Amino acid sequence: MTTATPIIILDTNALLDWRVFKDPSAQPLAQAIEAGRLRWLASPAMQTEWGHVWPRSVFTRWQPDPAWTTTVYDHAEMVDEPPRGPYRCKDPDDQVFIDLAVHVKARWLLSKDAALLKIARRARRDMGLEIMTLQQWAASQICQNNSTESQIPTT
Prior knowledge:
This protein is α/β, with parallel strands linked by helices. It is built from eight helices and five strands. It has a five-stranded parallel beta sheet with strand order 3-2-1-4-5, sandwiched between helices. The longest helix is centred in the C-terminal third of the chain and has 12 residues, at 134-145. It is globular, with a radius of gyration of 15 Å. 32% of the residues are buried.
């Protein structure tokens, strides 16, 4: 029996951690996406938002590499904009992330946004969708890799 590759949705905060702040917690995520053990799905609206956010002057002190930041979506599987889902996010810019996660039945939505994190308990209960920060996700993967129930296939 073949196990489907888990789907993950990354909001702009998670991408900032990965590509601008170069958070070490992003390494397992990047490796899993690049190895095909995770499917990162994204929509054009998400890519457009990324293009507006990462070049902001507030991030200058981290010296983001334009070639590395602009190519992050090369790792995403682009899909159409999702229909409006059952959850309402107080931040309209983040609505697309929860809508896509629900629509594609993602396993995880990684975010630091308080409005999205507030939905986490209901999304887990109703849909099995885990909404958490990149750092929480990375820690959970370390714990699971030390047990016999890893949620990301290793091959």
